[in-house]
Amino acid sequence: MQLDNLYQEVILDHYKNPQNKKLNTTFDAQVHHINPSCGDEITLNVTLEGNTVKSVSWDGVGCSISQASVSILTDLLIGKNLEQAQVIADSFMHLMQSKGTEKGDESLLEDAVALAGVSQYPARIKCALLGWMAFKDASVQALAKQA
Amino acid sequence: MTFDAHAIAKDFPILDRTIRDGKRLVYLDSGATSQKPNVVINAESDFYRLHNAAVHRGAHQLAEEATDAYEGAREIVATFLNASVDEIVFTKSATESLNLISYAMGNAAPGNRYHLKSGDSIVVTEMEHHANLIPWQQLAARTGATLKWFSVTDEGRLDLSQINSVIDEKTKVVALTHQSNVLGTINPLDAITKRAHEVGAVVVLDACQSVPHMKTDVKALDVDFLAFSGHKAVGPTGVGIFWGRAELLADLPPFLTGGSMIENVTMESATWAPAPKKFEAGVPNMAQAVGLGAALTYLTGIGMEKIHQHEIALTKYLLEGLSAISDLRIIGPKTTELRGGVVSFTLGDIHPHDLGQYLDSQGIAVRTGHHCAWPLTRKLGVPATTRASVYLYNTTDDLDALIVGVQGAQKYFGR
Asked: Which residues form the NIF system FeS cluster assembly NifU N-terminal domain (chain A) (predicted)?
């Protein structure tokens, strides 16, 4: 069934066992993002160590797509430097806009390629991007703090 | 004539199409927008094909025909609501109707009965759609008036226990929904209209979820203003109704100004035409108004009382069917007493978006999210719900499909 393209096992696993879903008490930047069309909300904390993403922690409510996507994001980006994180985020954004024509670069996106099916459901792309937009916002704020 | 929903469904061409790999369309989202029967689709296209001209202008036959069709639609709406024809204002949507009254009140000069100032209050409820909340928040912000509200109980009813302090001598307007678009709750109006009128306040009723589904008599309701949208009442999009009691419309300043709504204009100033023209600036949505006339004629032909009884029967069937599903929690009244055919629920840990997506894969259309009533869903502690809403063309087959679909989703996401 086409729906299986959307709800891959990896997504449901991350939804049931979300990674880093506990807000760290210390952070360089904290952001709160909302998807006003459906009410999904996320709070996300980022800590940098120089140019490296030292920690990303979060809490929020939302559908399996939005929750799995941010859980996958934390696995992917913690430990990367900001340039690498940017490359990954751009690649993920490109995949989400691909309307089902691309599978995603697994060497770069790892578990996030499981979200490729989302690109066939226009109403759900915002769900998948909620955490990524929050990370982008928080990392910019965290970096600004270093200056 | 007996009520036959299967036969009625044949009047709606869209219900014949299939969804996602050939599934029968099970449309349970009429609370968002209703489907349209052929008579409405034809009325709108016939207007364009045969009668199109700007109403109330032009010295030609088409302008006469267009004006007759448009004003004929106004008469149909007036009869439908048991109102006078000059009390019916065409807008582009119910949202515009509610903005019309709130902006018009904001335009009222000192001395006008609608003038608001610091110390006055505006009363709403916690179960309002954003369209009947934000215009009043904004009016309060612009005028310095205080926004107050009736809270909602855990059972999904208005808490009227403090009615005499919520509505007091300072209250100028009470705006509330007739039926909640999330809970299905039908609000009893008698105590509210009585108290509001006792203190000299006007009552504005958001009737988007009630007018399409039950017989509405504005005189019997004893409210002062009422708004509903055409597209939820098997009519076209792009047309809404604003109704007000004639003597109240006379004192209400205009909202939008421009062509059609004037009596006399000089370079320095203008005076207003009497209602309803005072509130209809510009060339109106004529084809849509004519389509709404056809829609209300169609509903009247079937019978609003029969439609209402049909929906109550469906709602009872749905409430019973859903209640039997483990982990399913109905958000709103559990019985059909003072309740319409809008049923919201949560399903264990399955997020409404995921449930809605699964149901869509089965051809079933429902609404998910906060339903433009975010303060209400927050109050109830459910960030989002799944909502099924029924109308005259729905059958128990549709509800059986939903119930099977919900159980299917439990298996699908429980893997």
From this structure: 7-127
